[in-house]
Amino acid sequence: MVKVLIPSGALGLGYDRVALAHGITLKPDIIAIDGGSTDSGPHYLGSGTSKYSRNSTKAEWRELMAARAQAGVPLVVGTAGTCGADDAVDWLVEITREIAAETGESLRLAVLKSGQDNQAMVTALNAGRITPLPAAPEISDDLLLDCTNIVALAGAEQIQEALNTGADIIIAGRTTDTAIISALPLARGCHAGGAWHGAKIGECGALATTSPNSGTIMIAFDAEGFTMTPMGADARATPRTVSAHMLYENSDPHILYEPGGYLDVRGATYTALNNREVRVTGSDWIVSDRYTVKLEGARRVGFQTVSLVLVRDARYVENIRTWCDDIQAKCTAKAAARVEGKFGIELRLIGVDATLGPLDTAHRIGTEIGVMGIITAETEALSREVAKMLNPYLLHHPLTEHEEMPTFAFPFSPPEMPRGAIYEFCLNHVLQIDKPMDAFRLTVEDITP
User: Rounded CA gap, 363 and 349, in Å?
Assistant: First the structure.
């Protein structure tokens, strides 16, 4: 049996300290936690930075390092620094060194990086080793060279290589959410289908329980399947909460693709052992005839400045779309005549349909609407310049030419708020490799006081 303690769905989200302490008393074989994902958009991969506070991350990581030392087992984090880019991995490595220096701890640190060289990806594309997933965008040599960061998603084999170094702590770049949980059970001969299925259920901590915010869970893997046990005092796992998690971030509720194969849970059986624990058996792991890893990439597409104005005048609220369309047309024409370079002006109606846009068929207009102007341009200077041209329109533009000039409310002065560089995801492909470590780099460092 292999017991994996999962403190939380992601480092930086917080967790139940009492539940974590309880988990340590149950003598886990490894502590595994995810460091992020693509959920928060392309900025973090594009810039190679974390979405989470450094102070919060350091505080939680310090506690997990202490828990690891108490348990005497490896601690592994995947997709370090939200995006798993090499710079984000280095960020968490620096935090780890700081904590070790402050606590006087000696430890072995393994660092697994998954960043890809742009030119190497061009070579792989031309060799037919990069293939699209469904709905993937068209890619080219120029697009690959234009990416600020490309990462490959590591699987269980790469984490196993890191574990084989005898490391106390493993900081991994971009990994699949399941890799850090499944690696040790697979290495020790646990049921392959159960290892991957349990890893999928445990990827987000207590999300697959009746108390999703409690954070910490334990999954025990064995030769036939796995058992999921929440560590929170009030949390319960049920066949429904456990089975339903296969739907989470997965297009197929029965099949989950991973490097080297796929998980099939159509034959799985979910049994409540008591009012807290669920036992799962019958899952299958099907080995693929080729080894592929998913690629993610982001590139910079411009610079952005936003402005926000609040509209309460009943007549303007009633005719808000007409007002915005007129502003957009007139400001665009003025800017095109006065500046050089590519730009775009977008006005979003906050409180109407800013979230879903034209997909929102049930929107209602209230007494107040926030109009957010978004100016995207090829340079930061151009973005700010066009935003300043938009300013007087948002503040004073009349609904018709024959009425008094209105005045609306800017909540900030100045209203223009530069967002800096913006990025977009541009890869949804897989890379075929001959050996699991071909696209990854592993280093080991012994840290002493």
Answer: 11
Least confident of 57-61, 64-68, 134-138: 134-138
How many contiguous H segments (helices) and E segments (strands) does the chain have?
13, 20
Average pLDDT, rounded, for the chain = 95
Architecture of domain 300-425: 2-Layer Sandwich (3.30)
Closest by CA to 202, choosing from 224, 223, 175, 221, is 221
**Cα distance between residue 374 and residue 303, in whole Å:** 10
pLDDT(249) > 90: no
pTM, rounded to two decimals? 0.92
Per-residue pLDDT reduced to its tens digit, 167-208: 999 999 999 999 999 999 999 999 999 999 999 999 999 899
3-state secondary structure 164-218: CCCCCEEEECCECCCHHHHHHHHHCCCCHHHHHHHHHHHCCHHHHCCCHHHCCEE
Domain definitions of the chain by residue range: 2-114+153-291+433-447, 300-425
Report the distance separating Cα 280 and Cα 270, nearest Å: 5
